[in-house]
Design goal:
- This protein has 158 residues and is mainly α.
- It has two domains: 100 residues, no CATH class; 49 residues.
- α1 runs antiparallel to α2 and α1 packs across α3.
- The radius of gyration is 24 Å and the shape is extended.
Length: 158
C-alpha cells in the first residue's frame, strides 16, 4: 500500500519537484553571472554578452532539469515508502489511496489552479498599496545610498 501511495504521489508531484529543484540550482548561477556582467562588461556590450550567456544558461538549465528529473523518479519510492510505512497505518493508506483515486479527488485537484488564482488575487488586492509604498520607500533609500556612494545627486543614473 505504501508503494502504491508513493507511486500516486510521484505521478502527481514529480514534475513540480523537478522544476523547483532545477530553479534552485539555476538561480544562484544566474544571479552570480548577472551581477558579474553588470560589474565587468561595458554597457555597450552588455546586450550581446547577455544574449550569449542566455544561450549557455538555457543549456545548463535543460541539462540540469534532465538530471534532476531522472533522479526524482528514482529517489521517490525509496524516500516515500519508508515514511508512509512508519507514519501511516494500513487503514490510513487504504483511505488515502481510495480518496486519491476517486472522481471527487480528481475534481478537487482540477479546481486547484482556479482556487489558487482566486486566493492569490485577493492577497494581491489586499496588499497592493502596502507593497507599492514599500517599493517606493526602497527606491528612495536605494537612490540615497547610491547617490551618497557616487557623489551624484541623481541616484547614480546616467
Amino acid at each position: 500500500m505504501a508503494t502504491k501511495l508513493a507511486q500516486i504521489q510521484l505521478k502527481a508531484d514529480s514534475a513540480a519537484l523537478a522544476e523547483q529543484l532545477t530553479a534552485t540550482a539555476v538561480q544562484p548561477v544566474l544571479a552570480n553571472w548577472s551581477q558579474r556582467l553588470d560589474e565587468t562588461v561595458p554597457p555597450a556590450k552588455q546586450k550581446e554578452v547577455r544574449d550569449k550567456l542566455d544561450v549557455e544558461l538555457k543549456k545548463f538549465a535543460d541539462s540540469t532539469h534532465k538530471t534532476v528529473e531522472a533522479q526524482v523518479g528514482k529517489a521517490g519510492e525509496a524516500a516515500l515508502v519508508p515514511i508512509f510505512m512508519e507514519k501511516l497505518t494500513e487503514d490510513e493508506l487504504k483511505t488515502i489511496i481510495a480518496y486519491l483515486e476517486s472522481p471527487v479527488s480528481t475534481k478537487f485537484q482540477a479546481l486547484g489552479p482556479e482556487a489558487t488564482n482566486a486566493w492569490a488575487k485577493r492577497v494581491i488586492d489586499a496588499t497592493r498599496s502596502s507593497v507599492e509604498a514599500g517599493a517606493k520607500n526602497f527606491d528612495t533609500a536605494a537612490n540615497r545610498i547610491v547617490s551618497a556612494s557616487t557623489g551624484s545627486s541623481n541616484g547614480g543614473k546616467k
